[in-house]
Amino acid sequence: MNKDRFTDFKVFVELEGEKRISIDNLFNLLENIARYGSISRAASQMGLSYRYSWGLIRNAEEALGLVLVKKQIGGYEGGGTTLTGDGRELLGQYKEFKGEVDTQLNRFVEKATGIKQPPLTADDIAGGALQRHLLLASTMEPVETGLLDVLEGAFYQNTGVLVRHISLGSGRALQIAGTGRVDMALTHAPKLEEDFLKAGWGKAKFPIMSNDFVLVGPASDPAGITGMNASKGAKEAFRKIFLTKSPFISRSDYSGTHLREVKIWESAGISPEGKWYLSSTGVIGNLGVLSLALEKKAYTLVDRATYLLSRSKEKNMKIFVGTEEGNALPGEMENIFSLTLVNPERIFSVNYDDAVLFARWLQGDEAQGIIAGFGKEKFGRSLFSTNID
Q1: Residue 5: which region, alpha, beta or left (left: phi > 0; alpha: psi -120 to 50)?
Q2: How far apart are CA 27 and CA 336, in angstroms?
Q3: Which residues 6+ apart lie within 8 Å of 53 measured at CB?
């Protein structure tokens, strides 16, 4: 079997005609800094020296004319380095660019070679054959928690099919799926998913897992949400935030989280605007939004898994509205993640057969067991649920 042609594919940039740095190293370093809040741990995870890592960042900052990281007291692991707004925005743009480049390179090789691989046999899988692959546009929560990497690894061990993913908001993920750049999209935006199917771009949709959205904010509770009438649900909490003009951070990116936030504002009869309502332009995902909410002492809407992962509770951020707290209306904060497969009748290049295989595997006992147990050891509870009504 042929070796994956892009296993050793690397990107470099030449700074000011002299210094040549690894773009992969730079952006992997930035991503790990965002994850751990510490440049020393980020460097350690990559097998790089602390001195080299700082030099890499400083060279890039000087060449780009941007400040990418800043030192502060604290960090998720007791570190002291976080990404600036420019750093977060640049990282997000690179991840999208890299994902799309990988997609196009793989499409090119498939078209150039004209090779369509037959289904693998058990002997092929045992012998390490790796010619079949899938491309997935995924919402950020399964990626940020690490669940998607675990599922993709287990699927490969079972089938020999490699799944590669791009991490995006749900709206952008479905938009890319509609161009044929990926075979499927894992999202949590029911209305967008149904629109995608009705428009003919999607062939089938498979509910995979769920958790719930939660309204979080500073423990000081400047809006006075604590003790509100639970029968009125999240919209009552949003009204209190609006009436007190307490700071609120919005994803503002057409993601599944943003769309749910908009739906709650609409149910409360409010069009949020003003200095108190802050758009998280350039911030990546719910982890980035939570970090900004901590900085601004603001309320925001995220999913429960991200809240647990961020350890925001240890930083005086608490949940005010959520399903488990019993102060949300039925279905109001429900957050279902579904896999939507691109329609091969509209986009002929997609690998629909293996996408169906992946979808059915995700709904099977092994994958559902992985999902049901994911996070229990670290957090004492699962980050996602397999109970989907």
Answers
A1: alpha
A2: 30
A3: 29, 39, 42, 43, 46
Q: Beta strands 69-71 and 12-15: pairing type?
A: unpaired
Instruction: Give the ranges where the chain is alpha helix by DSSP (H).
Output: 23-36, 39-46, 50-64, 85-113, 122-126, 140-144, 147-159, 170-177, 190-198, 233-244, 256-267, 285-296, 304-310, 352-362, 365-373, 376-379
Q: Return left, alpha or beta for 74; rule: phi > 0 is left, psi -120 to 50 is alpha, else beta.
A: left
Alpha-carbon distance 269 to 118, whole Å? 55
pLDDT higher than threshold 60 for residue 143: yes
- Only one residue has tokens 């809040």, namely 37
Residue 117's φ and ψ, nearest 5 degrees, are -75, 135
Using alpha carbons, select from 145, 194, 186 the residue that is nearest to residue 165: 186
- Whether the predicted model's global pTM rises above the 0.90 cut: no
Q: Which of 107, 228, 119, 95 is nearest to 173 (CA)?
A: 95
Q: Could you give the CA distance from residue 113 to residue 89 in angstroms, rounded to a whole number?
A: 37
pLDDT > 60? residue 289: yes
| Residue 266 reports pLDDT greater than 70 | yes
Question: Beta-carbon neighbour count of residue 124 at 10 Å?
Answer: 17
State the DSSP H helix or E strand holding residue 15, giving kind and residue range, or none if neither.
strand 12-15
DSSP-derived secondary structure letter, 374: T
**pLDDT above 90 (res 239):** yes
DSSP 8-class letter at 231: G
**312: DSSP letter:** G
State how beta strands 299-303 and 277-279 pair: unpaired
- Interhelix angle 285-296/23-36, rounded to 10 degrees, is 50
Whole-angstrom distance, CA of residue 153 vs CA of residue 328: 36
Q: Taking a C-beta distance cutoff of 8 angstroms, is the pair 258, 252 a contact? A: yes
Closest by CA position to 212, among listed 265, 137, 158, 264: 264
The neighbouring-strand residues paired with 213 are: 303
Q: Where does the pLDDT of residue 333 fall: very low under 50, low under 70, confident under 90, or very high at 90 and above? A: very high
Instruction: Give residue for tokens 């990107």.
Output: 11
